[in-house]
Amino acid sequence: MYNEVISFIRKTFNTPEEFIPLHAPYFGGNEKKYLADTIDSTFVSSVGAYVNRFEDMMAEITGAKYAIATTNGTTALHLALIVAGVKRDEEVITQPLTFVATANAISHAGGIPVFVDVDLDTMGLSPNALKTFLTENAEVRDGAAYNKQTGRRIAACVPMHTFGFPARIDELADICAQYHIALVEDAAESLGSYYKGKHTGTFGLLGTFSFNGNKTVTCGGGGAIVTNDEKLAALAKHLSTTAKIPHPYEFVHDAVGYNYRMPNLNAALACAQLEQLPVILSNKKELADIYSGYFENTAIKLVMPIQDGVANNWLHTVVLEDQQHRDAFLEQTNGSKVMTRPIWRLMNKLPMYEQCMTGDLKNAEWLEERVVNLPSSYRP
Length: 380
Ligand SMILES: *Cc1c(COP(=O)(O)O)cnc(C)c1O
Hints:
Elements: H1 3-12, H2 31-41, H3 49-62, E1 66-70, H4 73-83, E2 91-94, H5 100-108, E3 112-115, H6 127-137, E4 138-141, E5 144-147, E6 154-158, H7 169-178, E7 182-186, E8 194-195, E9 198-199, E10 206-210, E11 223-227, H8 230-240, H9 264-275, H10 277-295, E12 301-302, E13 309-310, E14 316-319, H11 323-335, E15 341-342, H12 362-368, E16 371-374
Parallel strand pairs: 2-3, 2-6, 6-7, 7-10
Antiparallel strand pairs: 1-11, 4-5, 8-9, 8-13, 10-11, 12-14, 14-16, 15-16
This protein binds pyridoxal-5'-phosphate.
Pyridoxal-5'-phosphate binds next to helix 4 and helix 5.
């Protein structure tokens, strides 16, 4: 049934028989050179010139005033939630349709996730669903939002730009501001994605990125926090480096800190990858156009960014007619060594999060049954 799609993908990747991965890293620049630099200098660990350079590059690329390097995207989000003021047993609103790290980082910060529905077109948190949830369940007292059902403060909201497609982040920011809820964007998947000309991750108080091996660019493992708030930036950096008070030789720490700073070895790789970001993004855009031409005349719908949105094309995404078609598609493509993957199981269905409060999740449930990612790697 899907033989034609399979041969089209094989032709597009110029790979007649071999395995085609979902997303392979591409190293086409200074990666080896910079890595060798760190070894020659002996500065392979959490102090080094590449870490600072990586932070400068991230600030420049995103347009944020400050960037803080972290060990990965999960620790970036954990730390961002702490500096945004999330305290133990406070609630954090996020979407059920996300990678588990979003909900885990909320838990690591002591927060309790609350799941609110996504929009069908962006697959990201829905402003309408958020407004409905807050109207029904929240009240503002003394400049803070409280959940009337649980009595807990709603400390933060974490939308996620699914597969690099920008969510309606300006509307979400307005709603959060109205309710005095801190907006922290999980932009792990959306480096190079923009909404209304502004980089994703820069609409809220803080935004976070991931440089894991499967992302648009990778440094093996790594993350970043971006913010325009000088105090929060300083606090995030301080907490990420064991909260050590700078001193030539004394060890004095003034808070329970974390060992979350990106090692120079990884930062070297990250700098080389960020140098190539424009090349990688334009290569992936070409693939988006090829897929869009093909799927135009099929029953399979290719996901496109919404108006005013620019996607980084991290993962190309299709929506099948129903779960039966999705299952057949997954089975036939993977059976032919063309790697495809379904979207995540909803967070509220996982054992550790099934007790969490949710809004009406009909869009997330609809997408969960139908969404599949296609091979999306850089094509040399
Ligand atoms: C990849 C990812 C993360 C976590 O990043 P790591 O670097 O793997 O810790 C967080 N959130 C989302 C949505 C992601 O896709």
